[in-house]
From TrEMBL:
One of its GO terms (biological process) is cytoskeleton organization. GO terms for molecular function: guanyl-nucleotide exchange factor activity; phosphatidylinositol phosphate binding; zinc ion binding. Its main location: other. Keywords: Cell projection, Cytoplasm, Cytoskeleton, Guanine-nucleotide releasing factor, Metal-binding, Phosphoprotein, Repeat, Zinc, Zinc-finger. Residues 459-519 form the FYVE-type domain. Residues 90-99 have a biased composition (Polar residues). This is FYVE, RhoGEF and PH domain containing 2. It comes from Sus scrofa. One of its GO terms (cellular component) is cytoskeleton. The keyword Coiled coil does not apply. Residues 20-65, 83-102 are annotated as: Disordered. Residues 320-419, 545-642 form the PH domain. Residues 103-291 form the DH domain. Gene3D superfamilies: Dbl homology (DH) domain, Pleckstrin-homology domain (PH domain)/Phosphotyrosine-binding domain (PTB), Zinc/RING finger domain, C3HC4 (zinc finger).
Length: 656
């Protein structure tokens, strides 16, 4: 303990020497105007003849920056030498045999000693590093004064508060401990001013970056810092090390005060005040932590900004990055999904493409979708598992996650952002997330036609125009997408243009149904679609309200030798007929088979997944992907063959 006391004594003595040298060398001292005639307030009460009105904490911090007097710094020598006090009060060494200082006083003594050392560090930061760098900046013009002020932030206010108020109050209270054994009221009075640390903590990371930058950039800047760091007062520690101490100080107060409260007897007069003081210190720590959190959030936004290379600024105090990560984009033209990257903020979703050559920006922003008005739901697509749909005013995306858990996480994050922004705008509504064929959802989609980007039907999901049911071919009838409803249509059925609000009212290619709805114009009679035949039942309508639907391989001469795959549907509104489509989104079936009277038997090929329909010498042979799927189809066809309808009781369920 004696060694530690000597080190502290030497440190403060060196600080006094540096301070006196700075005064004699012409540096402008920042001394209170009454300091030359009066004793520093707080060290000891002045005599009546020397009494003067002491300023409040707020007044002192708002006044011209000041420093601690030489007399007060010299007094710290004797205060620090009292570090032997703890050793003298150890069991067996106390001057009064049989007595021992209470634990709570030991903690207060530790608080005082650490505060004395802390004020010495603050003096080094403010009066030595800060002032010497300012002096060099003014004289040499080698680096801006503003850089120095940014690095040290509000360290002058922190130094004044601790040196002129907090430390003297602690010293006075410990001196009067015999008559006033309490510390809680003092900390209660001064704790609110600890919130000034938030500014310092918030600026700390930026300050360290500036310090590193200008140390490399300016030799005079580096020379001043190196000279002070090599002095005895710095204790062979770097400026960065000293700058870290204010960041760590409030948590230190919290630990010491918590220990103090625990050691107080149940009937101690200071217990209530100490507990309140602890709560206030905790609040100050939370305030500081909130500043750190805010700093980290803005830093994260800045890093995203740099990775995107955006011209428009996303580093806005109202923006919060909620989630980011890679996904796969399901293409409506290509067979395989494509690598993409999403950034979800509280107010927008950025849909990005990774750059092949990552020089500068790492991603290119393809689409910015506003969270306001956005919707998200899961897709039931056997070809693309754990896929989901994000539908916004600017664009609708079909995305695939790497796992079911990741898909759920993305959907929850998007929905949470949607809910939050709807609550903030006081327009929160329960979004209708029913099945795709639900009448309420269809009504909602019709009302939003042209107001938001539609979900595009993928090319390979249809083999014919979804309006006129004519088959597509590569030469005379190519595929097009209606920009209003997303249907795949032929050129004849999409030879119309209408202004769409989601695309800034620019004219877009639309199908004739959407053209009529959006413009109110009547389609000429020669362009109206023909009366539907028996095969013109849309696969989408049948699949969404079906008793059974899936792909089946079609075998035998009836379907051709190639054995094509067909999308087979038994509709709920036509339960005795099997419709066979070339693709799930086709609007016209290739064939329909009335099932009434047919027999369902095992297939002739000995494959457990093969079954057939047989009636009067007619055979239709099918092959399912699994035995379980085959069993469900056999049960469904047997019901239909017997004349069963959905309203009648059944002995089983066809669903999974």
């Amino acid at each position: 303990m004696e060694g530690a006391s000597k080190e502290k004594l030497a440190s403060v003595s060196s600080l006094v020497t540096v301070f006196e040298n700075s005064r004699t060398s012409g540096a402008a001292p920042r001394v209170h105007r009454q300091e030359a005639q009066h004793h520093r307030p707080g060290c000891r009460p002045p005599s009546p003849a020397e009494s003067w009105e002491r300023p409040t904490v707020g007044e002192a911090l708002e006044s011209e920056p000041r420093t601690v007097s030489r007399r007060y710094l010299n007094s710290l020598k004797n205060k620090l030498s009292s570090g032997a006090w703890r050793k003298s009060c150890q069991p067996g060494t106390c001057p009064s045999p049989g007595t021992q200082e209470p634990e709570e006083k030991r903690i207060v003594q530790e608080l005082l000693e650490t505060e004395q050392a802390y004020v010495a560090r603050l003096h080094l930061l403010d009066q030595v590093f800060f002032q010497e760098l300012l002096k060099e900046a003014r004289s040499s013009k080698a680096f801006p004064e503003d850089v120095v002020r940014l690095i040290f932030s509000n360290i002058s206010s922190i130094y004044q508060f601790h040196a002129q108020f907090f430390l003297p109050e602690l010293q006075r209270r410990l001196d009067d401990w015999t008559t006033t054994p309490r510390i809680g009221d003092v900390i209660q009075k001064l704790a609110p001013f600890l919130k000034m640390y938030s500014e310092y903590v918030k600026n700390f990371e930026r300050a360290i970056e500036l310090l590193a930058t200008w140390t490399d950039k300016s030799p005079p800047f580096q020379e001043v810092i190196t000279r002070i760091q090599s002095s005895e007062a710095s204790g062979s520690l770097t400026l960065q090390h000293h700058m870290l101490e204010p960041v760590q100080r409030i948590p230190r107060y919290e630990l010491l005060l918590k220990e103090y409260v625990q050691k107080l007897p149940a009937q101690a007069p200071d217990l209530a005040d100490a507990q309140k003081a602890l709560n206030m210190i905790f609040s100050a720590a939370q305030h500081s932590n909130a500043a750190i959190t805010e700093m980290e959030r803005l830093q994260e936004l800045w890093e995203v900004y740099q990775r995107l290379g955006l011209e428009d600024d996303i580093v806005d105090p109202s923006n919060t990055l909620l989630r980011e990560g890679p996904v796969l984009k399901i293409s409506f033209r290509r067979n395989g999904p494509m690598e993409r990257y999403l950034f979800l903020f509280n107010n927008m979703l950025l849909y990005c493409v990774p750059r092949v050559i990552q020089v500068g920006a790492h991603f290119q922003v393809r689409t910015r979708i506003d969270v306001a008005g956005m919707k998200v739901r899961e897709l039931t697509d056997a070809e693309f598992p754990h896929s989901f749909l994000v539908s916004g005013k600017q664009r609708t995306l079909e995305l695939q996650a790497r796992s079911q858990e990741e898909m759920i996480s993305w959907m929850q994050a998007c929905q949470a952002a949607i809910d939050q922004i709807e609550k903030r705008n006081e327009t929160f509504k329960a979004a209708a997330q029913g099945p795709e064929g639900d009448a309420q959802e269809q009504e909602l989609q019709s009302k939003e036609l042209g107001l938001r980007a539609p979900q595009w039907i993928r090319d390979k999901m249809v083999t014919m125009c979804m309006r006129c049911q004519e088959p597509f071919n590569a030469l005379t009838r190519r595929r097009h997408h209606c920009r209003a409803c997303g249907y795949v249509v032929c050129g004849r059925c999409s030879d119309y243009r209408a202004e769409l609000k989601y695309d800034d009212n620019r004219p877009n290619r639309v199908c004739f149904d959407c053209y009529t709805f959006l413009t109110g114009n009547v389609i000429p009679e020669d362009k109206e679609d023909k009366r539907r035949g028996i095969l013109e039942k849309g696969s989408v309508m049948g699949s969404e309200q079906s008793l059974m639907c899936s792909f089946l391989q079609l075998l035998g001469d009836k379907w051709g030798k190639s054995g094509p795959r067909g999308w087979c549907v038994i509709p709920r509104d036509d339960p005795l007929v099997l419709y066979v489509y070339a693709a799930p989104q086709d609007m016209r079936a290739h064939a329909s088979i009335p099932l009434l009277g047919y027999q369902v038997t095992a297939g002739p090929q000995g494959d457990p997944r093969v079954f057939q329909l047989q009636q009067s010498g007619q055979f239709y042979i099918f092959k399912a992907e699994t035995e379980e799927l085959k069993g469900r189809w056999v049960k469904a066809m047997e019901r239909a063959a017997s004349g069963w309808s959905p309203g009648e009781p059944s002995d089983g369920d066809l669903s999974d």
